[in-house]
Amino acid sequence: MNNKLRVAIVGYGNIGRYALQAVEAAPDMELAGVIRRKGSREKESPKGLAGITVVGTINELEAVDVAIVATPTRLAPRITKEILALGINTVDSYDIHGKLYDVKKELHAVAQENGSVAIISAGWDPGTDSILRAMLEFMAPKGITDTNFGPGMSMGHTVAVKGIEGVKDALSVTMPLGSGVHRRMVYVELEQGADFGTIKKTILQDPYFVNDETHVIEVPDVEKLIDMGHGVLMERKGVSGATQNQLFKYEMRINNPALTSQVMVAAARATMKQSAGAYTMIEIPVIDFLYGEREEIIRRLV
Amino acid sequence: MNNKLRVAIVGYGNIGRYALQAVEAAPDMELAGVIRRKGSREKESPKGLAGITVVGTINELEAVDVAIVATPTRLAPRITKEILALGINTVDSYDIHGKLYDVKKELHAVAQENGSVAIISAGWDPGTDSILRAMLEFMAPKGITDTNFGPGMSMGHTVAVKGIEGVKDALSVTMPLGSGVHRRMVYVELEQGADFGTIKKTILQDPYFVNDETHVIEVPDVEKLIDMGHGVLMERKGVSGATQNQLFKYEMRINNPALTSQVMVAAARATMKQSAGAYTMIEIPVIDFLYGEREEIIRRLV
Asked: B273 vs chain A: nearest CA distance in angstroms?
């Protein structure tokens, strides 16, 4: 008998690749298959997909419990809704902070109608950073939390720039300036004949970039600049009860797509323990993301 | 109309004092009263209790929604059970890691029978540190987490020593030696005629101390040594999927009873959102500990 969770991965970009490794490392999961667009499937198959079932739609896979939606963020809500409508659970890492509540609401309705569960915005920010921000706020309800990102490659921002017409390759690096203020350094490699001025203007007007100091730089070869390391420094100074100057600091230095996809895989596990609906990570008990017996986890970690 | 959560505080030691401040600072709560033993009530009333309802049993208070059990840890399970049996929710900060699952099981039965909710071991360790340990484990499932405490005064250890016959006053300070290894420095002020050798032996055999290097020192006046600051440095180095060397660090420098009681007050709020039973903090969504509207919290913190 096999009680393993059957997981499908939608998309095989950076997140998809690392998600595959995380599913293979999870003792309670097995890969149902990878879903790729026709265009991608017709190209030469990447090494990492050797021996893996690759299909065009999730219907071609057998008995999928949960789908990890590893597409560009802007495609995620539509694809997620289609999968939820089939009664299959989903995890995405939708990362546009200002819109995620509205996406959650939309997905919630579809999930409830079809008896499925969505965990949205699962990654490290939004995601585990959100859990930490929420926790620090109830530990010291008055005060300020600063989340400083980087230096490091932002996946969402990079993908957004790559989607612009005339951009052959791109890299968006986030530089922390302190107090939660950031600079975005965007490196673009252009298609033959593309106009740098037009592309730069498009980037500067994109919701991903409008709120930060952004520099767009044309380079001949983006590939040579890519390092997927990233980091966060979160700080809160606040008041517990009537006691001032409570100090908290959280720092991480990580491979970005490896961590994002690992969190998504943990969220895939957590979908199985929720009632139908759509959830952000702060709405789910942390124990639900962990592999193992409840009693053993509590005895070991609490 | 008044929809405020009515909170009772059981005990008026360090945690009780700070819990009172945290309840007063919470916009959604009001104090029902403080419960003290007869012996304590007969002494001169502390300044902080001026104008506060002080009673001997919770039955003397009106319409209590939730009780914060701020007694010494070893009395907490019994008192908590009595309150749960009245159909009133409870929060304790039971801090003996090796026994808390068994306490939870006992309380769970009582709570389910009486339609009440207990959150046990609510504080910073066990408590918010537990949430963090659980989160870091699903972010990098393979690896080692070290929790380094201090330097700082341990409330649980101090109270345990104070409970020993012949001890007039005590202070247990935790010193971090790195890699999660600690030294306990125990300062004791003795009652007239008490035997230091016997007391030292009792301390060294106490489950609170048996696992750590412990030094017991006799001093003439413990009061002069008391500083309630404390700290934690938690570190994890682990593997996400197949990616090694993911680095995480969490540090806090805080007033110990102020933070413990603030977390207990947040947990008091969270009891109102659970179904009957007993829970540790990792079994509860972090959003439930926060004051405010769900949508507003998600839009602001996720």
From this structure: 12
